[in-house]
Structures are given as structure tokens and as C-alpha cells.
Amino acid sequence: MNDPLVSVVLPTYDRPENLRNAVQSVQEQTYSHIELVVVDDHSPTPAADTLSPLSFDELTVEIIRHEENRGANEARNTGIRESTGEYIAFLDDDDDWAPSKIEKQVAAFREAGPEVGVVYTGSEYVYDDYVRTVTFSLEGDVTEAMLRGRSLGEFTTLMVRRDVVRAAGLPDTDFPSWQDRDWLLRLSRHCEFKTVPEALTTRRRKTGEDSISDNFEEKRDISYPLFIEKHRDLAAEYGWRCERAFMAATTESLGQEALKNGYYADAKKYLLKALRYHPLDRSRLVYALVAYGGKYTYRAAHTLASLLHRVRTDTIHK
User: Fold this and answer.
1) Is the pLDDT of residue 308 over 50?
2) Residue 32 and residue 138 in one domain
3) Per-residue pLDDT reduced to its tens digit, 15-53
């Protein structure tokens, strides 16, 4: 059996050292039939110059440079369009992979039936003072579970079959954030999901930081209403309980982002709103109480959480 070609799409902007590390993790993959598509979103130092010291004798590499900065979402879509593999995997320029990641995802596709169109892995989040490992068990038809708030990781954990991408369409660049949530939901309507329950992606973060970009006002004003507009009707198709769970989970997520970014009035507003959608969820009540105390209770809670993290390694299985 011939090994299928896997396209790795890697958008990048102005992270030369991180980019080299990410690319080297692709070079070190135990699976060999890979093409790497690097999309340089008009970095001050061109990615081609950053990567010129590396040898690509055993890896097909295409480097595409945008003539102007268009954002990571547009860069990712450029890579999808220019890629040619049967499967498409994604890697952010500040992340890297375990050497067996692609091999294990291709093996999962081979073991699965034709209904599986997405294989995803867990992640290891490396912070300044602790490590958090997240793996997943959710498989099959995942649409309703995702609508109810279940998380399935981010772009850098995914491998997607190309025909499913054609059916679902490209990631929506109207989202300044939550683009992965939207796309995963859309993909789930065209295929089943399968997981490799191992942390095969490493994501490095500063303590208290969960993402590369954390513009709360964009999430509040653009991503949150757009996500609800696009998916609330779908949630309602699963019944009123699913619709309320969808609204509660989406609103709670925004409230948590507000709390983390110091928007305490917004945190109170959205966390209480989430409680009204799902009043029996105790975790939402805890977040709402923290939000009511403002920065003092949040800092105390955050300090306590950090102390607990320092004395143990978190392993979370979802």
C-alpha cells in the first residue's frame, strides 16, 4: 500500500526562532511522505531567509510569502489552497510535534472506515512553571457534543481528509478568534472524528496565557455573536435542551475570557447570562462569584491555581 501524501500547513509571522523549531519537528517525523507548505504572512525577516540554513533533502518544502500582512487565518487558507496532499495537517509556528504524530494519525485513518474524516491528538501545554497534558476520548459523530461545549483541541492537533475540507469549506476568515471552533463544527457535519489519545503536540505558553492572540473585545463584538448566528439553529435541531446548553457553553467561554483579560464587568454579565441558560451547573456559579469580586478575588484564585500547578503536573482527559 502506497503511503498517502500529508500536507503540513504552517502559517508564520515574525517568529524566526520558533519557526525553525516548528519546521525541525516536521523534519523529524517518522512518517516520510510529507510536503510542508510554509505561508509567510509578510514577516519583517522573510521565512525563506529564516529557514535557509536548514537542509531539506528529505522533505518537500514550499514557502509562500504574502505581499502584505493578512493575518494567520488568511495565511492558513493560502496554505490549504496550495497544498496537494490527501490529508492536511496544521502546525502553528510557536508549536511543535512529537516525531510520531503524523505516523500515528495516518495509521488511525487506515484503521478507520471511510466515514472518518478528521483525526486529532492531545496536547502538552508547557508553561513557565508547570506542564498541563490534555488528551481526548470523543469520537464518532461529535456534532451534538461540541454544540454542548465539548472541546476537541486546536488546529495544530488536526489531520483532515481533503475531500472533507472541500465539503465543509475553508476556515471562515470572518472570525478573528474561535475560527477553529467554527471549522470543527462544520467539519463534523460531513464526517466522523477519531482521536489518538496521546499528547503529540507541544504548545508553549507563558503562565496565564492560553493563546497567541487574546483580543477580548474582538471576541465579544465579532466572534461571539457570529458563532451564535452560525450555529444556534443547528443546536436547536437537536432540541431545546441542546440549544440552551449551546448558549450556556458559548456564553460561559466568553465570560471566562473576560475574567482572564480583566474585563470584570463583562465577566459578570456573561457568566450570569450563562447561569441563566443552565442554572444547575456549579462550575459556572464559581466563575460568576469570582467575577463579582473583581480583580482581587480573581488574582487570589489565580494565585492559588498557580501554586497548585507548581506542585503537580496536570493530566486532563476529556
Assistant:
1) no
2) yes
3) 999 999 999 999 999 999 999 999 999 999 999 999 999
Distance CA 249, CA 265 (A): 19
Give the separation between CA 29 and CA 70, rounded to whole angstroms.
30
Query: Do residues 82 and 62 touch, judged by C-beta distance below 8 A?
Result: yes
Kind and range of the H or E element at 3? none
Domain of 106, in residue numbers: 6-204
Number of H-type helices and E-type strands within the chain? 13, 10
**Residue 171, domain CATH:** 3.90.550.10
Instruction: List the beta bridge partners of residue 21.
Output: none
Q: What pLDDT, in 10s, does the model give residues 273-285?
A: 998 998 776 666 5
Owner of C-alpha cell 494565585: 303
Q: Which three cell numbers stand for residue 190?
A: 460531513
* 174 and 195 housed in the same domain: yes
- Residue 100, CB half-sphere, CA atoms under 13 Å: how many? 10
